[in-house]
């Protein structure tokens, strides 16, 4: 149960579009480490427990030992969630922009809505239409409150719904305590990456329904038979899953380019299914031999 709780906490935090700051990264790594510790505890308990259960004659105790109905469903949900969490790590700023955003968050900054003081050039339509209103981009002048006093700065390429005028607000990112980081228009909101997130969440949702249904209709005793750790079954599967986590580390620490981040995320997203395939294949060999 403890392993399942740690696993689901890690997956839920992973599938949410949290800010790309160091605190969120450390939280995810802490949850992964906690899950890894629970896996080690599970392996230790499996190795130390007897290999075969004694015959139970008491019918009441036999009913208590019946396979759980919820475990197959929980396992069926965990696999798509793991893939979805891996894909979500590729969504958001990357490369030089990702490094800058991380520095802003690390310096105590973030995203703010600031009123426009002056529009510096002719707004250009971006081609995006929101609720039948065109989006425009323009260089604007805003006044930002820094720790050492207010400063008037220019924000390049700020986008607004409708032509920007004085008094409209624009989303900017900066760190009040570190003016040297500069100021940029905040284009890392939900709508800038919302399409990718919607596709990932939708795919994860339907795969969760499918795999949970398949696992629920499977024989519960067969699923419960793989609960005990076996080196030839769970060892390679655990190694594959660990490789999936390692594929996500470059994007978390070094802010890889967009194509590299998505490639690594796709490879990491495939590892839960590869691990499942290995376990099923090894279990099928054991059943056919017996």
From TrEMBL:
<keyword id="KW-0812">Transmembrane</keyword>
<feature type="transmembrane region" description="Helical">
    <location>
        <begin position="196"/>
        <end position="216"/>
    </location>
</feature>
<keyword id="KW-0472">Membrane</keyword>
<keyword id="KW-1133">Transmembrane helix</keyword>
<protein>
    <submittedName>
        <fullName>Uncharacterized protein</fullName>
    </submittedName>
</protein>
<feature type="transmembrane region" description="Helical">
    <location>
        <begin position="70"/>
        <end position="92"/>
    </location>
</feature>
<feature type="transmembrane region" description="Helical">
    <location>
        <begin position="27"/>
        <end position="49"/>
    </location>
</feature>
<feature type="transmembrane region" description="Helical">
    <location>
        <begin position="237"/>
        <end position="254"/>
    </location>
</feature>
<feature type="transmembrane region" description="Helical">
    <location>
        <begin position="260"/>
        <end position="280"/>
    </location>
</feature>
């Amino acid at each position: 149960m403890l392993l399942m709780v740690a696993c689901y906490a890690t997956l839920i935090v992973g599938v949410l579009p949290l800010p790309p700051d160091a605190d969120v990264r450390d939280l995810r790594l802490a949850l992964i480490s906690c899950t890894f510790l629970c896996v080690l505890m599970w392996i230790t308990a499996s190795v130390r427990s007897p290999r075969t259960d004694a015959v139970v004659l008491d019918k009441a105790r036999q009913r208590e030992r019946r396979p759980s109905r919820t475990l197959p469903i929980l396992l069926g949900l965990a696999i798509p969630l793991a893939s979805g969490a891996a894909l979500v790590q590729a969504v958001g700023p990357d490369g030089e922009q990702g490094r800058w955003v991380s520095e802003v968050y690390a310096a105590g900054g973030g995203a703010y809505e600031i009123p426009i003081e002056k529009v510096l050039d002719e707004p250009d339509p971006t081609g995006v239409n929101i609720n039948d209103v065109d989006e425009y981009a323009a260089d604007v002048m805003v006044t930002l409150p820094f720790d050492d006093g207010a400063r008037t700065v220019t924000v390049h390429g700020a986008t607004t719904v409708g032509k920007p005028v004085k008094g409209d607000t624009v989303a900017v990112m900066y760190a009040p305590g570190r003016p040297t980081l500069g100021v940029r228009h905040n284009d890392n909101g939900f709508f800038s990456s919302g399409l990718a997130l919607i596709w990932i969440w939708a795919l994860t949702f339907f795969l969760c329904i499918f795999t949970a249904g398949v696992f629920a209709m499977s024989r519960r005793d067969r699923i419960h038979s793989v609960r005990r750790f076996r080196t030839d079954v769970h060892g390679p599967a655990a190694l594959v899953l660990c490789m999936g986590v390692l594929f996500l580390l470059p994007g978390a620490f070094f802010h890889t380019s967009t194509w590299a981040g998505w490639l690594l995320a796709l490879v990491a997203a495939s590892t839960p299914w590869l691990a499942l395939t290995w376990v099923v294949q090894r279990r099928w060999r054991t059943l056919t031999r017996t």
